[in-house]
Amino acid sequence: MSHHKKRRKPCPEAESLATEHARVFEAAVEAGRRAGRKAAKRKLKRAARYGGLQLSKPLRESVLRDAEKAGGRAAYAAATKALRRAGSRMALAPAPGHAAADFGSPTGAGPAAGAVAAPPRRMPGSQVVMDVLRVERPSRSMVRIVAGGEGFDDFESNGAADQYVKLYFTNPSLGLLPPYDLRSLRKSLRREDFPASRSYTIRRHDPVARELAIEFFIHEPAGPAAAWAAAAQPGDQLVLSRPKGKFRPDPKAEQHLYAADDTGIPAIAAALERLPRTASGRVFLEVEGPEDEQEFDLPLHMELTWLHRNGEPAASSNLLSDALRDIPAPHGRVEVLALGGRDAVRDIRKLASHWDIEQRRIHVSSYWTARRPGRTWPVQAAAGPRLEAGQRRDGTDD
Asked: What is the CA radius of gyration of the chain?
């Protein structure tokens, strides 16, 4: 095992459009939280002045925090609508001599002159059906599925950095068409043929580009989700639920301490993109080896350390907890986010309980438990060269 430390290198390329959108959302949420707290404070003061109910200090603070959250959610929804309208205006009003841009196309090619776009199709129920636009490989062991299409309008992001969805996978031999009527299928299908569901973090949601990205950690033995992602190709359908999740980085924190294994990297990356550019702190990420590292757009004063298992089973790895134990104990206004296997995050939770940090600033979540992968079905390999030459779909070299 080795501790490989890498400091942020200046990126010569311009920041991505998605990063700019994340900053807009972060600013909107922060402004909404301040406005919500201010409005609630004013109302409580006015009520007390005119003989209203006097709240205890803890209850008053709880009411103000709820107002902050409500204000942040409302501001995020407003920012999403504004950016979506801006994207629509860009598509409808192209520059002279140029066709309108098609934001749903991975190539950016616009529709033919004079063409009228069909209204978006709405899916009933709690499932959203999108089309795979492209498949990317940010590292040896990670597959990024970028989806969009008509179903994108049915998805409403909740703005959280760790927002996650349930993905649904079916036996292709049954020929089931999404969205799936799970109640009916439960009565008509054998248990082993019932659609499998797995929870995955949204890596990126871009309402202007009309794209949603989810990253899959490819491992062995592969379950239905990893097997599907390894064989996915443009045109395939991605079936997902409405999002959940609630973590939003605190821009006022003095330090940020983030830690995760392969499964938590998408949420950590999304959180980093939402931090102010002046944020400072440490990030510890555990992967198998150097080929599994990724490039991130880190804030100026965030230090990233990669931890390599080098063949040690992920289920028995103590790299994250050991790394956090080796640094000076955090104290004060520090925000902690730890994601990964059940045993690893349990050790981190015990460790963090002894730090001089408010417990509400410590966010620890178990993403997986060592067990059998469950059901798998034959998956037809996707056509076309989407992996590096000499590399198999399980992420290892031939």
From this structure: 23
Q: Is the dihedral of CA 104, 276, 287, 196 positive or negative?
A: negative
In angstroms, the Cα distances linking 306 to 117, 254, 290, 294, 309 are: 46, 23, 8, 10, 10
Q: Which residues pair with 252 in a beta bridge?
A: none
Q: Which residues of the chain have pLDDT under 50?
A: 12-14, 88-124, 380-398
Distance CA 274, CA 227 (A): 31
* Encoded tokens for 285: 């990420």
Per 3-state DSSP, the chain is made up of helix, strand and coil in percentages (nearest 5) of: 35, 25, 40
Residue where the block lists tokens 């529709």: 111
Q: What is the DSSP string of 56-116?
A: PHHHHHHHHHHHHHHHHHHHHHHHHHHHHHHHHHHHHSPPTTSPPP-TT-TT-PPPPTT--
CA distance 391 to 15: 30
CB 149 within 8 A of CB 239: no
